From TrEMBL, chain A:
Its main location: nucleus. Gene3D superfamilies: 1.20.1280.50, Ribonuclease Inhibitor. GO terms for biological process: auxin-activated signaling pathway; pollen maturation; SCF-dependent proteasomal ubiquitin-dependent protein catabolic process. SUPFAM superfamilies: RNI-like. It is found in: Nucleus. Pathway: Protein modification; protein ubiquitination. Pfam families: F-box_5, Transp_inhibit. This is Putative F-box domain, Leucine-rich repeat domain, L domain-like protein. InterPro entries: COI1_F-box, F-box_dom, Leu-rich_rpt_Cys-con_subtyp, LRR_dom_sf, Transp_inhibit. Residues 5-46 form the F-box domain. It comes from the Eukaryota.
From TrEMBL, chain B:
Pfam families: AUX_IAA. Residues 1-58 are annotated as: Disordered. This is Auxin-responsive protein. Belongs to the Aux/IAA family. It comes from Helianthus annuus. It is found in: Nucleus.
């Protein structure tokens, strides 16, 4: 006798599974559950757009409402991935347009998006609501105009740090007068002026607007008008925060801010004139997120603002804050979860600010909920790292960038192995780690031994030999993303841990000692991996097999070789049967 | 073949109209320093897209002793978006086009490489299209078929071909730009085609 739930019950149960991992697990239970689950999965996340073919995706999941895709490897953010490498979203958009007319949400990260893609999106999906483009490129303001003109039910248009070809600022005026559904608009990355009157009218007719992040060109004097029209805003990004010092401008600004009772996030602040900072004081105690990382103003001015932000959970700031400012953070922001400190002058060897490891230690002592750190500084010591790890064993993300490559402990001149070792040993929930400074194979031994929950590791200018890489690949059970540059890691560790690579999303190695021969061998032996050699030198065919490649990007895939590669990308070791047929949907460029 | 066979003499007459520039033979000058880095028109090499300064992996190690810090590609890991947004100092330079009645200005800090700069010229002077000829980037006016070679005046007062030095170095040393009609450049394409 077999008992089985009616389909409706199963579907109802599955509706409570929101995490993709949970849904993946459920779909493996039995064939019935697999079938049931795939019909009701609404949200898809593809962490590497080349890991799976769009056709395979839509065949399995016919009823998708929201898609999230990621393209280029993370190091593309730092110009390490040559232009034209890939990450074209066009073939995906074409398939979605064909099969998912009710698609509502598209989130893309590090992908190439063309105007044609945006036009298709604007016309193919009747109920399209959310477009979030993060670090994307390839489109112009014409594409944005199409989205504005055609997406009648758009709620979110978020251009995070995109590179947009800006032909004009008029695209914003393409939102029709009947368009009133906007909830979130982020245009901070644009440099051309948009029509202020169009912006003001748009804000006025968007009663649900919660997030508005302006670009630099919106003058400070006009912000009050916008805030008055949208006092319900929860997330606001100013434009350039500078104007002539005029009492009337100041007081209307101050009044406008104090009218925003729901404001929790504040950002923008380019070109800050400190005299205008007190205008935000009235909202400081409400803030949970404050981004002053474009505010090139000195520590005392920053402290005046931060010292009032008692409920702050996330702070992003420049190193102008200095150790003294971080002491204030430690005392004031008891609810702080995330601290990001960017460098104001990264290319200058000598410190231009008084920011050292002490600021970070101070915050780690004072902020008991601190979980996530991204910190750029010029000096670090093992003792500081050990203190931080003991103060904050609850750290989940620790990214430290000492500006000078291979900088040792500035007190003892020793490598920072022990310090980072302490971090991985004490912070047992650590999922993300980026290291810098002078590091030997020892630190990798510690990582392999202790960092059992580590999901992503970034390494630069570190290690002595293949043993370092071997420790990580053989020891870090949860590792999914590994990115390495300028380390003396070569073929041995890579080939010895080939099967590990199938459990990971991707491995990036540039300026290391991985040879052509090893890449070819790996590609031949592991059909489930694409081993991409990214090398812009001419006459590669003349180089010997043991010559090191410039860059190699290895990722697991069920789609085989991709066909949209530029000539500086070679997928090693694959024969014609490993081909992923992109020919019917070209990259649309 | 060398550019010394060009018809540009070592004592060129002053050019007409708005510019005060004096053309010198490539490589010829009283000043000793850095001349070896200035390339002759004959020694054309590929420009790299994206303006990566040091793409050689062998050069990726920073020596701590150098006071003028050699930049390593992609280090420190700060997104170019942030680097661009942080620019307080705009680097506005005049752009003169031979035959145009007035000059324009561009902010070099807005561009991340030579290709983007040429695209910028395309937008600024809407009559131009970029034309890649023999690995050298030029601008062409399709209406009259004239070719324009982008040149710039550097800090030492010399007129250089745009594209020789790494992008960042160019931004730092460029004082102004002139889009030179190809016939004025070292007998332009004729010489190049002989290479």
């Amino acid at each position: 006798m077999t008992y089985s739930f009616p389909e409706e019950v199963l579907e109802h149960v599955f509706s409570f599974l929101t995490s993709q991992n949970d849904r993946n697990a459920a779909s493996l239970v039995c064939r019935t559950w697999y079938e049931m689950e795939r019909w009701c999965r609404k949200r898809i996340f593809v962490g590497n757009c080349y890991a799976v073919n769009p056709r395979v995706l839509i065949r399995r999941f016919p009823e998708v409402k929201a898609v999230e895709l990621k393209g280029k490897p993370h190091f593309a953010d730092f110009n390490l991935v040559p232009e034209g490498w890939g990450g074209f979203v066009y073939p995906w958009i074409v398939e979605f347009a064909r099969v998912y007319p009710w698609l509502e949400e598209i989130r893309l990260k590090r992908m190439v998006v063309t105007d044609e893609c945006l036009e298709i999106v604007s016309k193919a999906f009747r109920n399209f609501k959310v477009l979030i483009l993060s670090s994307c490129e390839g489109f112009s303001t014409d594409g944005l105009a199409a989205v504005a003109a055609n997406c009648r039910n758009l709620r979110v248009l978020d251009l995070r740090e995109c590179e947009v070809e800006e032909l004009s600022g008029h695209w914003l005026s393409h939102f029709p007068d009947s368009f009133t559904s906007l909830e979130s608009l982020n245009i901070a990355c644009l440099s051309l002026e948009v029509s202020f009157s169009a912006l003001e009218r748009l804000v006025s007719r968007s009663p649900n607007l919660k997030t508005l992040r302006l670009n630099r060109t919106v003058p400070l004097e006009k912000i009050s008008k916008l805030l008055q029209r949208a006092p319900q805003l929860a997330d606001f990004g100013t434009g350039a925060y500078s104007a002539e010092i005029r009492p009337d401008v100041y007081s209307s600004l101050q009044e406008a801010f104090s009218g925003c009772k729901k404001l929790k996030s504040l950002s923008g602040f380019w070109d800050v004139v400190p005299a205008y900072l007190p205008a935000v004081f009235s909202v400081c105690s409400q803030l949970t997120y404050l981004n002053l990382s474009y505010a090139t103003t000195q520590s005392p001015d920053l402290i005046k603002v931060i010292s009032q932000c008692h409920n702050l959970q996330r702070l992003v700031v420049l190193d102008y804050i200095e150790d003294m400012g971080l002491d204030t953070v430690a005392v004031t922001c008891k609810d702080l979860r995330e601290l990001v400190v960017f460098p104001s002058d990264p290319f200058v060897a000598d410190a231009n600010v008084l920011l050292t490891e002490e600021g970070l230690v101070s915050v780690s002592q004072g902020c008991s909920k601190l979980q996530s750190v991204l910190y750029f500084c010029r000096q670090m010591s093992n003792s500081a790292l050990i203190s931080i790890s003991k103060n904050r064993p609850n750290l989940t993300c620790f990214r430290l960038c000492i500006l000078e490559p291979r900088a040792p402990d500035y007190l003892t001149f020793e490598p920072l192995d022990v310090g980072f070792g302490s971090i991985v040993e004490n912070c047992k929930e650590l999922t993300r780690l980026s290291m810098s400074g002078l590091l030997t194979d020892r630190v990798f031994e510690y990582i392999g031994k202790h960092a059992k929950k580590l999901d992503m590791l970034s390494v630069a200018f570190a290690g002595d030999s293949d043993l370092g890489l071997h420790h990580v690949l053989s020891g870090c059970e949860s590792l999914r993303k590994l990115e390495i540059r300028d380390c003396p890691f070569g073929d041995k560790a890579l080939l010895a841990n080939a099967s590990k690579l199938l459990t990971m999303r991707s491995l990036w190695m540039s300026s290391c000692f991985v040879s052509f021969g090893a890449c070819k061998l790996l590609g031949q032996k592991m059909p489930g991996l694409n081993v991409e050699v990214i090398d812009e030198r001419e006459n590669l065919n003349l180089l010997p097999e043991n010559a090191p490649v410039e860059k190699v990007y290895i990722y697991r895939t069920v789609s085989g070789q991709r066909l949209d590669m530029p000539d500086f990308v070679r997928i090693m070791g694959k024969d014609k049967n490993g081909v992923y047929n992109l020919s019917l949907c070209d990259k649309g460029l | 073949m060398s550019s010394e066979t060009s018809t540009v003499t070592s004592e060129p007459p002053p050019t007409t109209a708005d510019t005060e520039l004096t053309l010198r033979l490539p490589g010829e000058s009283q000043k000793s320093e850095a001349k070896s880095t200035k390339r002759r028109f004959s020694d054309l090499t590929d420009l790299k897209l994206g303006g990566n300064d040091e793409s050689d992996t062998e050069c990726s190690v920073v020596t701590r002793s150098t006071p003028a810090k050699e930049r390593v590609v992609g280090w420190p890991p700060v997104r170019s978006h942030r680097k661009n947004m942080m620019k307080k100092d705009c680097k506005y330079v005049k752009v003169a086009v031979d035959g145009a009645p007035y000059l324009r200005k561009v902010d070099l800090e807005l561009y991340s490489g030579y290709q983007q700069l040429l695209c910028g010229f395309e937008h600024l002077f809407s009559c131009f299209t970029i034309r890649n000829v023999l690995n050298e980037r030029k601008l062409m006016d399709p209406v009259n078929g004239m070719e324009y070679v982008p040149t710039y005046e550097d800090k030492e007062g010399d007129w250089m071909l745009v594209g020789d030095v790494p992008w960042m170095m160019f931004v730092e040393s460029c004082k102004r730009i002139r889009l030179m009609k190809n016939s004025e450049a070292v007998n332009g394409s004729e010489l190049l085609e002989k290479c």
